[in-house]
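Tokens in:
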């Protein structure tokens, strides 16, 4: 229940993708540092025109996008603020650029996750270069509210720092329930501060192997022009995005609606199976608005890591303990909702058995 690779879950429509890559236009090497214009136009269209093609930068992955943005914004020893809980990759990506990660906390209260904007403001100092947000969040599936976004943008503008928003799961917004009226689906095109909106084929089309992602840039004109000029130098140094994916990008993104429909059916089906199996058990599923994960809150007194190891030993079921995602308190498991239904149902059976053992106090050692 930790499988996040869509190519191993029976979802990507490779039989329709392969022919798109067999394109004579990709046979000629025509390096374009920021990406081929037609590919950048495809991304701008995918973002509903929130940014213009000239403000789109193609990268091989969102990880590379972070790397380039950190190179752009930071000197060695500078800091970026990233959310907790969140995906653990940030520390590695920043560390490779000599950048320091500092966490700001999202607090679970009133049935949802909320950014502690006051604490975030106190964390900003002269060496902070950017604030990272993830919308919807990984793994909590939480949504950024407009008031929170406005507070973050004001903080960035006041301190001359950038906003980086990872939007790779944006197309799953609202699939698990009603979407809040003030929920943020994208920051693309916003202009209060220098803003980077990240996405890619890995999640939009379930095609991580094609290695094509993007940065949609916006912000005050002078900051935007300067950042684009410097990013072009960085991009020209690497030229890492392959021609076949760029040439086919418009067609690939046109497929994303159908791909997402199949994905959403899988995610909601698996989440329903999980909810039915444990609805009367001592573990609970925390509410979420999007993403590929479910967060389980364990009963008081259960050690999340020891319990995860026990589940693996006795039932052959793998889950992620919450400490891998920097949860502020112990007692969480993260479940990936992507696996094929039969495999997922087998994993859920193991979870249910573990919950029964806790309920009867048989064992949690």
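Residues out:
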């Amino acid at each position: 229940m930790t499988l996040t690779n869509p190519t191993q879950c029976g979802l990507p429509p490779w039989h329709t993708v392969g022919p798109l890559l067999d394109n004579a236009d990709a046979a000629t090497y025509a390096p374009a540092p920021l990406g081929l214009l037609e590919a950048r136009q495809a991304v701008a269209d995918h973002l509903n025109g929130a940014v213009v093609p000239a403000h789109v930068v193609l990268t091989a992955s969102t990880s590379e996008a972070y790397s380039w943005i950190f190179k752009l914004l930071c000197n060695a020893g500078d800091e970026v603020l990233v959310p907790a809980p969140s995906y653990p990759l940030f520390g590695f990506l920043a560390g490779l650029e000599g950048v320091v990660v500092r966490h700001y906390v999202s607090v679970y209260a009133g049935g949802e996750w909320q950014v502690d904007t006051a604490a975030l403001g106190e964390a900003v100092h002269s060496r902070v270069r950017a604030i990272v947000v993830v919308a919807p969040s990984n793994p909590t599936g939480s949504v950024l509210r407009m008031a929170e976004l406005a507070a973050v943008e004001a903080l960035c503008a006041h301190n001359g720092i950038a906003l980086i928003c990872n939007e790779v799961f944006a197309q799953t917004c609202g699939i698990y329930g009603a979407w809040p009226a003030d929920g943020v689906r994208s920051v693309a095109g916003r202009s209060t501060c220098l803003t980077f909106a990240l996405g890619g084929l890995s999640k939009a089309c379930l095609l991580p192997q094609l290695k094509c992602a993007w940065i949609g840039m916006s912000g005050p004109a002078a900051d935007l022009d300067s950042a684009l000029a410097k990013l072009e130098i960085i991009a020209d140094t690497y030229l890492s995005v392959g021609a076949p994916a760029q040439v086919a990008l418009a067609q690939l993104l046109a497929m994303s609606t159908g791909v997402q429909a199949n994905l959403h059916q899988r995610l909601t089906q698996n989440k329903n199976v999980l909810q039915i199996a444990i609805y009367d058990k001592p573990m609970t599923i925390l509410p979420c608005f999007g993403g590929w994960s479910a967060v389980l809150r364990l009963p008081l007194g259960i050690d999340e890591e020891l319990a995860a190891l026990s589940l693996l030993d006795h039932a052959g079921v793998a889950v992620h303990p919450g400490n891998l995602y920097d949860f502020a308190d112990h007692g969480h498991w993260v479940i990936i909702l992507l696996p094929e239904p039969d495999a997922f149902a087998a994993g859920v059976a193991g979870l249910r058995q573990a919950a029964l053992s806790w309920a009867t106090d048989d064992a949690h050692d």
